[in-house]
Each structure stands twice: as C-alpha cells, then as structure tokens.
Amino acid sequence: MGAAAAAMDQTEQAADAVYRLTNVSKTYGRNGVVAVKDVSISLPRGSFSSVIGSSGCGKSTLLKMMAGLIPPSKGSIILQGEPVLGARRDIGMMFQHATLFPWRTTIENIVLPIEISDGRKAAEAAKGRGLELLDLVGLNGFADAYPSQLSGGMAQRASICRMLITEPAVLLLDEPFSAVDELTRDFMNMELQRICTSRGATAFLVTHSIPEAVILSDTVYVMAPRPGRVAEVVHIDLPRPRTLDMILTPQFAEIVQRIRARLDEGGEQ
C-alpha cells in the first residue's frame, strides 16, 4: 500500500481510533533537519501495531512525540479525543531495558508511577493491583524480590506490570526485548501478545526485527529513511492467537519478504 492509499486507509480507521496522528512532522535544530515528515497513523482500540525502518529513519522521534516527551513541529497527536501536550497517565511506556531501581523491591518498582503522581498512600493502596499484575505475567511470589534477583526476562515482565499499573489507554513499546537472548525474546513476545489480548490493550511497537513485527502486529508501518515517513502500511492477515509455529509458514515468509523488499528499496515511491 502506497502513501496515498495509506492515508485513505487511516481516514477509514479514524472513527474507531483511540490514538491518532495527523500529518505529524518534526524538525530539529538551526539547520532544519527533518526527522519525521507528514506521518498519519490511527490506532484502533485493542489493536497491536508496529513501526519498522532503518536506523535514523525517525522511529524513536516518532515514539517520543507519541509519548508526549517532545512536541511535533507540525500536525496533531490526539489520544482519546484530547491533544497530547506532554507526558500523560494514560500513556504507558516501556523501554529496551527494565530500568528498575535496584534499591526498591519488585512491587515497589511497579507502583512507583502511582507514588510519583499520587503519593505514597496511593501507592500502598495500589499494591493489591500490582500483585494481580504480577500474577498476570507469571511473577507470583516475586513481589519482594530485588532487581538483582530477577533474570532479564523477569525484569522486563516486572516492567510490563509497571507500565500497566496506571491502566493506560495505549502502550508504547521501544524494542522492549532487544536486550534479552533470542529464546527469551520469543517467549516474551508471546507473553506480550497474551497480556495485550487479555486486557484489550492498544499497543504500538518500535522494532528492528521484521519477524517480531509480523508475529505481533495487526498492522506494520514501514518507515522510509530521513525524512522519516510512512512508505507502506502492511496489514497482517494471520489468525490470532499467533504462535511461533506460524514463523515457518509460507504466508509468514511472504509477508516478511514483502517488508524486507520495501526496506531494501529505501522506501522510495
């Protein structure tokens, strides 16, 4: 799907969009470096979408704008009908590394966003919900463990709980499992799918891995190099729940090849 068709597709999805970017651009510095140009994306409620592209194509800049960490130079970013003008409680963010505070227990790390926004009393009250989330991600019994006692995968699962504790409307995922080994990454991707499905979460993933994008996503946005823009929108017509066995199917290989070919072209129209 080309840029014009992609724009039309996004217009059709807008009515059901929990999160909507319209003609978003970002220009940096006095030299006017354009990092992102005219990106329009709509995330339907409960959907899982990914963006993939070469290094320097603007993926991280796009995610930072979506998280409210930096403002766009042009265009609008709307979440649940309200403009995103800064960091918000209804935006959950997960990074490449767990970034758990080593002096806090797992449960204390999980309720930290509540403590920051609402104080210690509210954080204490939220620990029950935190324990439910630990059970959801398979970390029941590790509430009082410290980060040094957790494996990399376990620490990232704790980070998922911390992201979910504020019950965000959208989950923004910045290559959350890139630092773990391949087997753990596969397992965590299937866990992420299960968690998102069980909570009806709306998720948006930045990744360099084409197979990861395909196995998780309903829609993959292929980014062209600078200035970063959406070169193609690929809808993933695979049944859910997805399984790792699907990676071996001809249909999966065909989708991966289509995205890889588009990236090799450099996103040229």
Would you kindly provide a written description of the structure presented here, covering whatever features stand out?
With 269 residues, the protein is of the alpha/beta class. It folds into two domains: 44-71 and 85-90 and 171-269, P-loop containing nucleotide triphosphate hydrolases (Rossmann fold), CATH 3.40.50; 100-167, no CATH class. It is built from nine helices and ten strands. The termini are close together. Mean pLDDT is 89; it is low at 1-8.
Structure characteristics:
269 residues; alpha/beta; Rossmann fold; disordered N terminus
The strand line-up of the biggest sheet is: 6-7-8-3-9-10
Tell me the CATH topology of the largest domain.
Rossmann fold
Helical content, roughly? 25-40%
Strands, total number = 10
* Share in β-strands: 15-25%
CATH architectural designation of the largest domain: 3-Layer(aba) Sandwich
User: In whole angstroms, how far apart are the ends?
Assistant: 10 Å
The 3D shape can be described as globular
Tell me, rounded to a whole number, the average pLDDT: 89
| Main beta sheet strand tally, sense and closure | 6 strands, mixed
CATH superfamily of the largest domain: P-loop containing nucleotide triphosphate hydrolases
Radius of gyration: 19 Å
> Class of the largest domain, according to the CATH hierarchy?
Alpha Beta
Q: Helix count?
A: 9
Low-confidence stretches: 1-8
Helix and strand pattern: HEEEHEEEHHHHEHEHEEH
Structural class: alpha/beta
Overall tally of structural domains: 2
